[in-house]
Amino acid sequence: MNTYELLSSLKIKSIYGALPEEVHSIEQDSRKVKKESLFVCIRGFRSDGHSYYSQAIHNGATIIIAEEKLPIDLTKFALVIVKDTAKALAILANKFYHYPSNKMTVYGVTGTNGKTTVTTLIKQLLEKNNQQAALLGTNGIDLLNESVESDNTTCDVLTNQKILHRVAEHGMGHIVMEISSHGLAQGRQRGVNFDVVTFTNLSQDHLDYHKTMEQYGYTKGLLFAQLGNNLTEEKNVILNRDDPWYEIYNGMTPFEVISYGIYNEADFRATNITYYEDHTCFTLGSPEGNFPVTTKLIGEFNVYNVVAAIATVYSKTMISVKTLVRSLANIAHINGRMQKLDLEAPISIYIDYAHTPDAIEKVIASVQPFKQNRILLVVGTGGDRDESKRPIMAEKASVADFVILTINDSRYEDSNAILTDMEQGMKHNNYICIPNRKAAISLVIDKSEPGDIIIIAGKGLEKYQITEDKKHPHSDKEIAIRNCSIKYNLSV
Ligand SMILES: Nc1ncnc2c1ncn2[C@@H]1O[C@H](COP(=O)(O)OP(=O)(O)OP(=O)(O)O)[C@@H](O)[C@H]1O
Ligand SMILES: [Mg+2]
């Protein structure tokens, strides 16, 4: 892109040195800089991009965007000083990639639990109706089935624009994005022009970062407030009517709210719910009337997720509720979220991703309607993350008949110390602490009896465990299948 055209998007700046005619790429990581790149020095949590300008120049950068003067050879390179490089990056990246989010319908989903589930459902509902959609979230980037793992649920500003640009180049009409509270607090979705944003629920998590529930809730609210005030645009907000934050988020946006829920009157409301071991049925009240719904997802929490996804897609497409309900019937479980293992065993095993107190409470409740014998729960938590939720997770876990407390990813923390924190919340003595996750899963299966339901919570289908900063291959599903096959003589 022409340099003058690109830089004209920044209103307040000082330019020093020799400006090249063209910019061929924008980078914030000096290792990724190529010939004729523009390098933006971002002050991050771990490092400051201002320390890497010389590496960027060495790798081919011709323009450096910084917040302070740097000793650059101005006869060969240009230095542009701005007040806030993070904001400048969002503006430049948008301009460079030709405002890609304006070329498609952009869906944002936020909330403590259910983001991956709801975003995946939205994508699948669109695809079942012949509309191509990309997905961005915890499981990485899924763009025309080209999937790339991502380190964070929400990508950085520059990566977002690069991905949106690729989605636009592929001519895809939709992108569905999972928006974490960390991403919102750090402005990682700056410059993404959302068309519809959806709220799942709010409960305790991430208080190591946000400190109070109020702060956490208001941070999530940024997504709704940032839809803006331009009422010539058709934007929508989809809110959970049964969550206490409904009224607050409703007040944060001038756009029309579409509500969904179970217990309160709502635009999309599920009633007459019946729970089965491998599916759920309910009646969906909607602006187009009542429809009988069958979904392969189980549990009340998934009724919320399913209804949220239908309301969201309905708000932005011409697809009728009747068609969406029909499409939903063909959508399988979401990987690693209350995923029942397909085994010919006298027990049922679910692999799940619950790692908050509310999610643990909800997954145990989801299997109660078809409990025959006991509910056995393996539940873990992670090191170097919100310590205050640990005893509350154990308290919620106590509803299960037998509990094994274990570790998801210890990171730099001592596993035994994590388990001691959790243990404080246990309400009965029918539990055991086993730091080694593989041993925990082996034991729960060994202790099982016909008719038992086992839930293995915390990691879903993740393929590794993290100790310190190392990733070790690990699969809850494989360990469970192997041990179950041995215990019950299955041929798999
Ligand atoms: N609507 C919901 N309410 C409460 N718990 C839920 C809900 N949906 C899912 N869960 C629980 O949370 C777990 C994680 O679900 P999901 O991956 O969809 O959430 P997420 O918000 O994407 O999580 P993360 O913040 O880790 O990305 C599920 O395995 C289930 O235990
Ligand atoms: Mg997620």
Automatic annotation (TrEMBL):
* Modification after translation: Carboxylation is probably crucial for Mg(2+) binding and, consequently, for the gamma-phosphate positioning of ATP.
Q: Which GO terms describe its molecular function?
A: ATP binding; magnesium ion binding; tetrahydrofolylpolyglutamate synthase activity
> GO BP, one example?
cell wall organization
Gene3D superfamilies reported for this sequence: Mur ligase, C-terminal domain, Mur-like, catalytic domain, MurE/MurF, N-terminal domain
Q: Does the keyword Cell cycle apply?
A: yes
Q: Kindly list the positions at which N6-carboxylysine occurs in this protein.
A: K220
Enzyme class of the recorded protein, top EC level: ligase
**Cofactor dependence:** Mg(2+)
**Task of the protein:** Catalyzes the addition of an amino acid to the nucleotide precursor UDP-N-acetylmuramoyl-L-alanyl-D-glutamate (UMAG) in the biosynthesis of bacterial cell-wall peptidoglycan.
Keyword annotations:
ATP-binding, Cell cycle, Cell division, Cell shape, Cell wall biogenesis/degradation, Cytoplasm, Ligase, Magnesium, Nucleotide-binding, Peptidoglycan synthesis
Q: Which SUPFAM superfamilies does the record cross-reference, listed alphabetically?
A: MurD-like peptide ligases, catalytic domain, MurD-like peptide ligases, peptide-binding domain, MurE/MurF N-terminal domain
Q: What is this protein called?
A: UDP-N-acetylmuramyl-tripeptide synthetase
Q: State which Enzyme Commission number(s) the record gives.
A: 6.3.2.-
Q: Where is the Mur ligase C-terminal domain?
A: 336-460
Cellular compartments annotated: Cytoplasm
Binding of ATP occurs at: G111, T112, N113, G114, K115, T116, T117
Which branch of life, at top level? Answer: Bacteria
Give the pathway.
Answer: Cell wall biogenesis; peptidoglycan biosynthesis
Domain Mur ligase N-terminal catalytic stretches: 22-97
Q: Which GO cellular component terms, listed alphabetically, does the Swiss-Prot or TrEMBL entry include?
A: cytoplasm
As for family, the record states: Belongs to the MurCDEF family. MurE subfamily.
- What residues bind UDP-N-acetyl-alpha-D-muramoyl-L-alanyl-D-glutamate, as annotated? S30, N152, T153, T154, S180, Q186, R188
Main localization of the protein described in the UniProt heading: cytoplasm
Q: Does the keyword DNA-binding apply?
A: no
- Mur ligase central domain residues: 109-312
